[in-house]
Amino acid sequence: MNTYQCLNDIITKDERKQLLYEVKNIKVWDDYSDTSNLKVVSTGKGTLPLKGLVKKLINKVNPKLKFWIADFIKFAPKKGIVVHKDDLPGRTSCITWALSPSLDKFSPIKYYDENEKFVEEVYYKEKPLIITTQDNHNCFNDSEEIRYTFQICFYDKIEKLVELDQKGKLFI
Questions:
Q1: How many CA atoms lie within 13 A of 4 on its CB side?
Q2: What is the CA radius of gyration of the chain?
Q3: Are the C-beta atoms of residues 96 and 128 closer than 8 Å to each other?
């Protein structure tokens, strides 16, 4: 399983607006790839303070999950990242929210097999998407706008998060 569309959500429309305001006002981003224009701010490096709305949202996720980091991801317009697997053990799965651009302009995540042959593309919807980062995947921002997501990342495999969401226990 590469992705799963959540049945439930913890972010209100006002909180989504607040997250978008916060991400657009970040001054310092960490570069994660020389070729992709992928930029990240995370609680792991301390560039995203573990306080306020970010802390509130993390605390709404089932505490039985092994939390690693929360982060904002930024892609420049018409830029993307090559097919890859994340090699960070704490980034096995993520709950991810599309913040900008609007969903009709928000590019999908694409998954590939072990030979990097295309398998599927998954589009974001209003409710969060749970993704695995352990399979070959990539993203490309087709939009003329900057692409922002908010993610809460875990050591746990996607199947555990999906099971909790289906039982109505992913968010508390």
A1: 21
A2: 15
A3: yes
